[in-house]
What we know:
Blueprint: H1 5-8, H2 21-33, E1 39-44, H3 50-62, H4 76-82, E2 89-93, H5 100-110, E3 120-125, H6 134-145, E4 151-157, H7 165-168, E5 172-176, H8 181-194, E6 198-199, H9 201-211, H10 215-224, E7 230-231, H11 233-240, H12 245-257, H13 260-272, H14 277-296, H15 311-320, H16 323-335, H17 343-355, H18 363-378, H19 464-474, H20 481-487, E8 493-498, E9 501-506, H21 509-515, H22 518-532, E10 537-542, H23 553-559
Helix pairs in contact: 3-4, 5-6, 8-9, 9-10, 9-11, 12-13, 12-14, 12-17, 13-17, 14-15, 14-16, 16-17, 16-18, 19-22
Amino acid sequence: MYQALYRKWRPLTFDDVVGQEHITSTLKRQVETGRLSHAYLFSGTRGTGKTTCARILARAVNCEHPVNGNPCNQCASCRGILDESILDVVELDAASHNGVDDVRALRDEAVYSPASVKKRVYIIDEAHSLATSSMAFNALLKILEEPPEHVMFILCTTAPQKILPTIVSRCQRHSFTRIEPEDIAARLTYVAGQEGMTLEPAAAALLARMADGGMRDALSLLDQCAASEHIDEAAVLSAMGLAGSRRTAELLEAVAAGDTERALRVFADLWQDGKEPSGILDELAGLMRDVLLLQVAPKGGESLVSGVYDMATLRRFAAQIPGARLMDGLNAIRTADTGGPSPRRAAEMCLVSLCVPETGDSLQGLKNRVSMLEAALKNGAALPAAAAPAVSVEEKPAPKKEPEPASAPVTEEEPPWYTDEDAPPAEGDIVPNIRLPEPEPEKPAPAPEKTPEPAPAPIATADGGELWDALVKAMAGKMDMGAHAMLNTPTQVSGSLAGDTMTVAFGTPIAKMMLGTPAVQSMLQEELRTLTGRDIRVAFADKGAAPTAKPDMDKLNALSRFGNIKFE
């Protein structure tokens, strides 16, 4: 039965592990000297060799004839561990066995000595999954703190931050890094040669970049491209459904020029060739990312780019596209819904927004317009003329100035009307006391007559409610704010007009205490006179009780002349 390449070519010794020399050299030295820890924590991204190194370490500590810290893979212990016939080396998937009962069973088994090897080794893969049950971690904590001498724990995880610090502090931690693309490409070339395939260097480099630092992913991609014995870059692009560097650069060139028609045509050709919209936009984002890195770090950016595109192409785009536009383009690609029901439409709308960044009145569109103007000014390009129509202004000749009359020349000769009598008195002459007439005081200019402002039209009093509302509104600012607020509350105070009397009814004692004063009564009568132009008396009463009318004294005096009259 065919076996996948990543399983077939899994390293069997520490020397076969690629890109993790800082870890394998330490583990080999510990095996040689026997200074082994009782618990290890291997952390890192997927496909970097965590579980592989755990299995190699489990064989190395139990190998009967280790070679420079590596397992020999020939003794009975190594062969039994490889074919899983020895039950003292247990590999547990914590993603599916994360219950407290599973950990308790493991803890109960650990106290027993191994049957056929020197150490009982427990490899707990995806150890961060135990975080779903804090009791499981607590059950594991005690045996990790003081394990038997014949027990070793190796925890493998891609999320070490989810593991309790009390667990991490009891383990010897090793962090696996991403494997360099050059190391992955060399390993892929070796595996392809052993499998009878011809892998071109450009294709190997492309697969290494796509693997994103994981050897397992790289071998899986190579397995996917193994349909043909000769694997070149075109075969990789076809198998992966990618557009390729040349066509992606053509797409970005159309976007930079704002040629929407060309960009959509390139995208349509890629779609027809079976390329996925998400993959096309992802490659475009990768190219924009390289261009942006070269802009912000012109000296050290060459070592940060992906290496898919030549430096001349990247420099040309870096000088052509502003950095703000690249950032906005990356954000637009990130938010494009290519995983929805219509990925093609979402990708096309994204390309339209990239080609015409000034579309719409959004903040992003305004930022793009400003960045385009800044780029145009920096490059010395002429800005477009304003759209407003030109207005011709006829030049009128300047009015001729009238020549000013020539002033008489000033000379030192005396004028003909000057006589000796007009000369100032000499020293010693008697000057008569002549009183000159005092100048008349200037009369002040009459003040301009003020046009009398028209008096406000009186409010009709037929509707007492309208007059009361006008009165309450007019009293704003003329009385205390608290008193006016109570006056403006219908449940506290209300007003009704009957003839020439405005009855103010109080709903609560506090309203009557605050507003039922002669001062307020006088203010209300004065304001009613201003509003209506006539005298209206203000009477206070409680709500529900009719106001007591003031007796007419003239009538009482007239009736008193008829004698002793009782008024009941």
